[in-house]
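User: Hi! I'm working on a homework problem where we have to compare a predicted structure to a textbook description. Could you give me the structure for the chain below?
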Amino acid sequence: MKLAEALALRADATRRVEQLRARAVGSARYQEGEEPAEDAAQLLAETGEVLDELESLIRRINRTNTVAELSTGGTLTDALARRDVLRLRHAVISSAADAAAGRDQHGVVRQLRSELKMLSALPVAELRSQADVLAREIREVDIRIQQANWEVDLLD
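Assistant: Happy to help. Predicted structure tokens:
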């Protein structure tokens, strides 16, 4: 099985656990004289089985990520960490640029000359340029990760 297939199975298992949890919670109590919509104990047992499968998948995925080498150097785990930090860096820079440009003001515009004028403490154009570079880097790292996901075999 390829890593990408395991990642899809992990996502499916995670969704399945959430669905089973919601169903179990919905069936955990019922009115006297009526029957519950579903057997909550059976739903919890099924959730346990799916969670066991999920744990196994996560372990195998993590093991694979730590040993899978990318053609550009480093492991898949290194690339995932790089992508996560690039995303955070992009979010910080973009938020700072938005705030400096006044986007956090909800469209409030100065009406009168007597009102206080707001000035930018940061170079908006430079921050937008940095955000663009970061977005490109994120895309490049993500492409390498996706490529590896379809090339790397999942470890046992």
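For your comparison, note the following. Residues 1-67 form one domain. The two ends are 10 Å apart (CA to CA). Good luck with the assignment!
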